[in-house]
Amino acid sequence: MIYTVGHISGAHFNPAVTITFAIFRQFPYREVPLYIVAQLIGSVLASGTLALVFDVTPKAYFGTVPVGSNGQSLALEIIISFLLMFVISAVATDDRATGELAGIAVGLTILLNVFVAGPISGASMNPARSIGPAIVKHVYKGLWVYIVGPIIGTIAGGFTYNLIRFTDKPLSEITKTGSVLFKSRKTTK
């Protein structure tokens, strides 16, 4: 699905990722509010469609609600959103990476995150994914966790990747002349 609209919208389905891209100047600030509104409307419409098509009981709620404490879910959402944004930054924004594999790398990261954090937090990683069902079904328990956690996690993930991305040179060019660590020591003296 993401690849079908990637050339039009940049495949922005996640407000936390959109905000992070804007912070690191990989997305224009002026477009952020419009994208976030579109992401939230899309989530509400998708959630409304699910609620109309299926008989959703309170036990079968399709949103995200903390199973453990809010603190546990917040910590997990920060960690898994960090990992998601780190991978997105590495494969989708760094032109030294193989772009054709970006979808696979991001998809596998989401899968791993769901396996690890899903049983505790629901593994949202996306504020819109949690806000839409909450609005449609009026379930707001712990919703703040799914807004704050992914935003903190994605900003930290984007910051960390940008911190370690020390050069725009391709890896093959860096390794021609020897160790990266040795080379950086020589230039700092």
Automatic annotation (TrEMBL):
Q: Which ranges does the record mark as transmembrane?
A: 34-54, 74-92, 104-123, 143-164
Q: Which domain of life is it from?
A: Eukaryota
InterPro entries for this protein: Aquaporin-like, Aquaporin_transptr, MIP, MIP_CS
- Among the entry's GO cellular component annotations, what is one? membrane
Q: Carries keyword Transmembrane helix?
A: yes
Q: Which residues form a coiled coil?
A: none
Q: Which SUPFAM superfamilies match?
A: Aquaporin-like (SSF81338)
Q: Where in the cell is it found?
A: Membrane
> What are the GO MF terms of this UniProt record?
channel activity
| Lipid bilayer topology | Multi-pass membrane protein
Statement: the UniProt record of this protein carries the keyword Transmembrane helix: yes
Q: Which UniProt keywords apply?
A: Membrane, Transmembrane, Transmembrane helix, Transport
Q: Which family does it belong to?
A: Belongs to the MIP/aquaporin (TC 1.A.8) family.
The name this protein carries in UniProt is Aquaporin NIP1-1
Please tell me the species this chain comes from.
Quillaja saponaria
